[in-house]
Design brief:
Length: about 240
């Protein structure tokens, strides 16, 4: 049956987790906790939970504003709040209904700026370590009924996904990064792209990040299956859900 709707990679990873159970059977809470413990703390100041709790804006929009601030700072431009709000709403509308806030209170702006400054600092430090610039919005290739999409950032061949949460990175966060790798590997096999060898989950709210060498990570979460086995099983699973 032909698929009537194309799903973006992020939605597949976060809303159809059953696709991953057979492909990555060991992506368990225990494995996630282990990788979270091996994360790194950046030198920037974390955003306090009290400051976030005092904000008026919904947290999703607040952190989208912070993301927009970070993008602008990385480009070397001065932060313009009208531009930040437009960018934040555009990102939100990829997945949710979103409206431009009538007013962004001064406190909320301060928190968003803190998030954005941390994001820029962390990415610049990671880029300096690799002696590479930061790429915004790297292309994530599609496959079958999964549409192509955009990641958050890339540094050389390292894919960076940003999560603003008070908690540790979740299994859904790791799934998202892993499907991005998987789609890049399929594109590399087909001769239409390059594989991501490394990934980073980065949280500018806490100042922490986790790095993944995909070869090592895949050996753990796929129970030792080869990359070809992973692709074969994943393609088979997509075929069973082609009528979504």
């Amino acid at each position: 049956m032909a698929c009537k709707t194309a799903f973006d990679p992020r939605t597949v990873a976060r809303e159809i987790p059953g696709l991953f159970d057979a492909v990555f059977p060991r992506l368990t809470p225990g494995v996630v906790s282990t990788f979270n413990r091996d994360g790194y703390q950046c030198g920037c100041d974390p955003v306090s939970s009290e400051d976030v709790a005092a904000c008026v804006l919904q947290h999703a929009m607040l952190f989208e504003l912070g993301f927009a601030v970070g993008e602008i700072l990385l480009s070397g431009q001065t932060v313009d709040w009208n531009t930040c709000m437009v960018r934040a709403v555009e990102r939100q509308r990829r997945y949710f209904d979103a409206q431009i806030p009538d007013v962004v209170p001064a406190h909320d702006r301060g928190v968003a700026e803190h998030v954005g400054e941390n994001l820029a600092i962390m990415l610049q430090e990671l880029g300096s370590a690799k002696q590479c610039g930061v790429i915004t919005g790297p292309v994530i290739p599609g496959f079958q009924w999964i549409a192509s999409g955009r990641g958050d950032f890339a540094i050389d061949r390292t894919l960076v996904e940003v999560k603003c949460t008070a908690k540790n990175f979740s299994a859904a966060d790791y799934r998202q990064l892993t499907i991005y790798w998987l789609l890049s590997y399929i594109a590399a096999i087909e001769g239409s792209g390059n594989e991501w060898p490394d990934g980073i989950l980065l949280n500018p709210r806490s100042g922490r990040y986790v790095t993944l060498r995909f070869d090592e990570f895949l050996r753990i979460v796929s129970s030792g299956n080869t990359k070809v086995d992973i692709v074969s099983r994943f393609a088979s699973m997509l075929g069973t859900r082609s009528g979504i």
